[in-house]
């Protein structure tokens, strides 16, 4: 049996990224985790995935706002594994503010982590992918990569940028066996979102159910959260051989949000 293919998933110590990492591990890919959190908790997580799926799982704590740390991470991964076959650019942060009050440092950090980091990881893995004649890049964008909301100017700008970046990279790499696609989720049921629901329920003096219906999912016609497993399954398909002719595409998984 040949060497397992290697998947780097950024922002994968929780939420969507963790779900994707678990799915790809179960599919048989060696996994490189990256993200924030307690070191002990992350080690337990790494070990759990490795034991259950019997693939190699490593962890990189690179700060994706720092291009030097990104380059060091990819260099180590390439040296250890020999290649990066799958890259999932998932890491992201949010900051909400009126544009006239938007703190410059927060704007820069949102753009750095949500957009610039994907550029740096992609540029660094592309030579290996081209050389091997195989690669899959999946960028986790957002419904906000296709439509806008007020008070989220940095996030919307970054996610629109990711969708455009995806198309351009796909065109550049199309003849090398490398695909690049984007997934655009709506509201996803993650621990972070649940924390937001709890906070809004207290602030608005409403039930959690009312907050979800009237504030979180008002644009999502299904009135249901997207599940992490749905995004993980779509990622699994896009990195498979069955998706070798799919490139430069953006897939909405948003309960009908962007169909309006």
Describe the 3D structure.
The protein has 260 residues and is of the alpha/beta class. Helices cover 48% and strands 13% of the residues. It contains eight helices and seven strands; from the N terminus they run βαβαβαβαβαβαααβ. The protein has a seven-stranded parallel β-sheet, with helices on both faces. α4 runs parallel beside α5.
CATH superfamily of the largest domain: NAD(P)-binding Rossmann-like Domain
Report Rg: 18 Å
For the largest beta-sheet, the strand count, sense and barrel status come to: 7 strands, parallel
The overall average pLDDT, rounded, is 96
**In whole angstroms, how far apart are the ends?**
48 Å
Helix/strand/pairing category: alpha/beta
The percentage of residues in β strands lies in 5-15%
Shape: globular
Number of helices: 8
Instruction: Give the count of structural domains.
Output: 2
The total count of strands amounts to: 7
Helix content: 40-55%
User: Class of the largest domain in CATH?
Assistant: Alpha Beta
One letter per element, helices H and strands E, the order comes to EHEHEHEHEHEHHHE
The CATH topology of the largest domain:
Rossmann fold
- The CATH architecture of the largest domain comes to 3-Layer(aba) Sandwich
Q: Tell me the strand order in the biggest sheet.
A: 3-2-1-4-5-6-7
Low-confidence stretches: none
């Amino acid at each position: 049996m040949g060497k397992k293919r290697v998947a780097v998933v950024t922002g994968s110590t929780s939420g969507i990224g963790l779900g994707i990492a678990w799915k790809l591990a179960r599919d048989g890919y060696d996994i490189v985790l990256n993200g924030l959190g307690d070191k002990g908790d992350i080690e337990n997580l790494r070990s759990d995935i490795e034991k259950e799926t019997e693939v190699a799982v490593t962890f990189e704590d690179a700060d994706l706002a720092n291009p030097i740390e990104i380059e060091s991470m990819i260099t180590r991964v390439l040296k250890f594994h020999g290649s990066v076959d799958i890259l999932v650019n998932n890491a992201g942060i949010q900051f909400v503010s009126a544009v006239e009050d938007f703190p410059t440092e927060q704007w820069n950090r949102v753009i750095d982590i949500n957009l610039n980091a994907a550029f740096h990881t992609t540029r660094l893995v592309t030579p290996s992918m081209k050389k091997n004649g195989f690669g899959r890049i999946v960028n986790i964008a957002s419904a906000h990569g296709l439509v806008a909301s007020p008070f989220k100017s940095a996030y919307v700008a970054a996610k629109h940028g990711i969708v455009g970046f995806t198309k351009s990279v796909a065109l550049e790499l199309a003849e090398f066996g490398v695909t690049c696609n984007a997934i655009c989720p709506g509201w996803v049921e993650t621990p972070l979102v649940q924390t937001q629901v709890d906070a809004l329920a207290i602030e608005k003096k409403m039930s959690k159910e009312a907050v979800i219906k009237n504030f979180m999912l008002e644009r999502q016609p299904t009135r249901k959260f997207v599940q992490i497993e749905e995004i993980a399954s779509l990622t699994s398909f896009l990195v498979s051989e069955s998706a070798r002719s799919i490139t430069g595409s953006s897939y909405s998984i948003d309960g009908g949000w962007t169909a309006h």
